[in-house]
Design brief:
This protein is an alpha+beta fold and 84 residues long. It is 36% helix and 20% strand. It has a single domain, classed as Glutaredoxin (3-Layer(aba) Sandwich), CATH 3.40.30.10. It has three helices and four strands. The N and C termini lie close together (9 Å).
């Protein structure tokens, strides 16, 4: 199993109820023991606007620390989390 740095960056996962890749992202974080906050953009207009403002037109959107990642890009996500 991969190792996560001892001090985990804040992770926020922006999702929608019918999004397959959102489920893939949630499962990835759970498998690695990554704590994350999930925000449903269909219920939070400000969150949806924040995603758009950062160039993300769909979900999932992953915010790690101050880094926005559009879509489920496992390589970028793991790199940002310091997973080896």
């Amino acid at each position: 199993m991969s190792e996560v740095k001892k001090t985990q960056k804040r992770v926020v996962l922006f999702t929608s109820p019918t999004c397959h890749w959102c489920s893939v992202a949630k499962n990835h974080f759970k498998k690695l023991g990554i704590k994350f906050r999930q925000i449903d953009i269909t219920k939070d207009k400000k969150a949806s606007e924040d995603c758009l403002r950062h160039g993300c037109k769909g979900v999932p959107v992953v915010l790690i620390g101050s880094r926005w990642i559009c879509g489920f890009d496992q390589n970028k996500i793991d790199k940002e989390l310091g997973i080896k």
